[in-house]
Amino acid sequence: MLQVKNLYKSYKTNSIKYDVLKNVSFEVCEGEFVGVMGPSGSGKTTLLNSISRFIPFDSGEILLNNQNIANLKEDELADVRNEKLGFVFQDFMLLDGLTIFENICIPQIIGDKNIATMESSANKLCELFGISHIKHKYPAEISGGEKQRTAVARALINNPFLILADEPTGNLDSKSSRAVIDAFIRAKDELNATIFMVTHDSFSASFCDRVIVLKDGNIYKELKRNGNRSDFFDSLLETLKVLGGDKDA
Ligand SMILES: Nc1ncnc2c1ncn2[C@@H]1O[C@H](COP(=O)(O)OP(=O)(O)O)[C@@H](O)[C@H]1O
Ligand SMILES: [Mg+2]
Description:
Elements: E1 2-13, E2 16-28, E3 33-37, H1 44-51, E4 59-64, E5 67-68, H2 74-83, E6 85-88, H3 100-110, H4 115-128, H5 144-156, E7 162-166, H6 174-191, E8 195-198, H7 202-205, E9 210-215, E10 218-224, H8 229-243
Parallel strand pairs: 3-8, 3-9, 6-7, 7-8
Antiparallel strand pairs: 1-2, 1-4, 4-5, 9-10
Bound molecules: adenosine-5'-diphosphate and magnesium ion.
């Protein structure tokens, strides 16, 4: 599904080169829910933005369903982003002037899809994520958790290969966070969605199948959940403690 091979990324500030990702390689399989953790500044957002090519990377390969996106032109990239990727951001990024239902439909409208199919897909997603009762409201009229579930529905409506989420629960209280994580789990279980989620929250991460831990631009460790979620939560906490970074940063 997603293969990242030998990814290098540096930033230049005042002509000083600063390496952020140093030879990062990993894979995410279809239908997998994978988390990325690591101290603040370890390169998590840089990794996500490199995968979507919102920022350029120095070298390496990124294969999305065997297509290398490293060399795509801007217009081809726009199609990949709309059709093959779904995005969920910390600050929701909903359009205030559109209803919840209309926000969910945006990727289909951009893709010029059939209206009847679009409406039926949007209605199904509203039902799946428990937001049918608010679909005619506007973003300012709903809670943070409802906004983020709207964003998850929007990310899924084009049936993308991969959902990229950067701190999706970062602005939410624990109850709303749980509802958003439940939405991801439903997407995985019922739509076979593949989810790649950056989070600093061990509780949210403990619902993942696997967690990649970044440190100083390298993969420090990969932890797999074998069975019990609360055991996985404990081993994530332990790993982050040993790693020393501020886990809440
Ligand atoms: N546009 C940029 N220019 C220069 N340095 C940057 C830029 N974006 C991020 N960085 C630096 O790269 C490092 C990794 O940042 P980031 O990927 O945002 O980390 P994380 O999401 O893990 O907190 C940080 O030290 C950050 O200051
Ligand atoms: Mg970040």
